[in-house]
Amino acid sequence: MTSILIVDDHFVVRKGLVSILTESPDAVKVDEVGSGEEALCKVQEREYDLVLLDITLPGKRGLEVLKEMKALKPSLPVLMLSMHPEEQYAVQSLRAGASGYLMKGSASDELMLAIKKVLAGGKYIGAVLAEKLAFGLISNAEKPLHETLSSRERDVLLMIAGGKTPRAIAKELCLSVKTVNTFRSRLMHKMMMTSNAELTRYAIQHNLIV
Fold it and tell me: For residue 168, what pLDDT band results from cuts at 50, 70 and 90?
């Protein structure tokens, strides 16, 4: 029986994945957790054949969880699930040890195909990404996340990490508070983060602030 761990902070997404997996003709045992911290505990406690890992999680980000998971269990296959475009984070995920990268909007047939390929020891990426890689159309795959930001988004990131409020940032940059919040939303999306605390931790880890 194949043992699979689902890691996603959205209850409805987890239940949808459980439904797809348990309705397959193959015998599957499924566990589910809602955070990276729980996932790391689970893989230490039990043996899994595959982990389905959401790239956007509260607390520890998916890529952080992936790296720690692979350090704990180097041979454990991990298939990343994401709402973000493949070209944005797929190559980073694969280089961090993932066995594949799949968009959450993919059909159930593609999910099962990806799972079977990864369980067989292969790697899975979508056809669109494969074509872009083949033609060298992805140039920023090795860049840290903050290097994908515009100069203004990076300014806002550094000020948030420095503890400044949207109003203070707006005053210093001669922008409206609404515009500052728009920049914040954009950089949050690009960096797959959900809180100022995550941004601050990232900035400290990458020596962006003193």
Answer: very high
